Amino acid sequence: MVDVTGNLETTEFGALTLQSELPSLGEATISTNGMGDLMTGSVKVVTEGLDSPIGGVLRFDAPGLGVAGVGASQAVRDAIIPVRRQMGSIDTGAALRNLSESELTLTCRLMMGGEMVEMQTVTLLANGQTAMFISELFEHDTSDFTGSMRCTAPAGEQEFTGVAVELDANNGIFTTLPVVPLDADMMSREEMDSDE
After folding, report:
1. Most exposed residue of 76, 112, 120, 125, measured as fewest CB within 10 angstroms of its CB?
2. pTM of the model
């Protein structure tokens, strides 16, 4: 998938690494070579030391639609994504990745006007990921739908990340959407409300 050239080398585990340290405020570009079959997966970047923050962007090319860039995803326990669908044209898809070393079952709610329309669970293997359109995850009629999708991890320490895109094949539009983290206070308030 990637030509190992320049400052890149492969580790014994098959990961890519830089041969020399990335300078402060520096940058590195790693591109796939476009050869081989289309693959599904995710990218994880690891730095040494807590004082080594790094940012990044993944650039996706959807043949016939265009190119969209997705910034680094935050680790979250609860997040909301704007979604919409118009049959035959616009559709929203999300990719979710488990950041923990054990299986994670997310609760995902399709919402409209702040109210839950439907709830489904998504189980992710340890360090696993999945991607789906809202019409694939939910049974509710989304043929003409505008709302949001909220995904929540169970109580505990497990976290996930997400990326969302909107495709409009008729108009050749490929757009990234925000995955908005919701704070822990909101989760606890809702849990207290449901206990009453």
Report:
1. 125
2. 0.76
Which residue is it, tokens 């997400």?
162
Scored b (16 or more CB within 10 A) or e, 128-161 reads ebbbebbbebbeeebeebebbbbbbbeeeebbbb
Question: 110 to each of 82, 90, 163, how far by Cα in Å?
Answer: 10, 17, 16
Q: Do residues 80 and 183 make contact, with C-beta atoms less than 8 angstroms apart? A: no
Residues near 84 by Cβ (< 8 Å), separated by ≥ 6?
90, 92, 145, 146, 147, 166
Max CA distance (Å), the chain:
61
- Give dist(CA 148, CA 151) in Å, integer: 10
* Cross-strand partners of 62: 66
Spatial distance between the Cα atoms of 190 and 188, rounded to a whole number of angstroms: 5
Question: Hey, what amino acid is at 135?
Answer: S
Which residues partner with 59 through β-bridges? 69
Q: What percent of the chain has pLDDT over 70?
A: 78
Secondary structure (3-state) at 25: coil
How far apart CA 141 and CA 170 sit, in angstroms, is 21
d(CA 61, CA 170) in angstroms, rounded, equals 17
Q: What is the C-alpha to C-alpha distance for residues 118 and 85, in angstroms, rounded to an integer?
A: 16
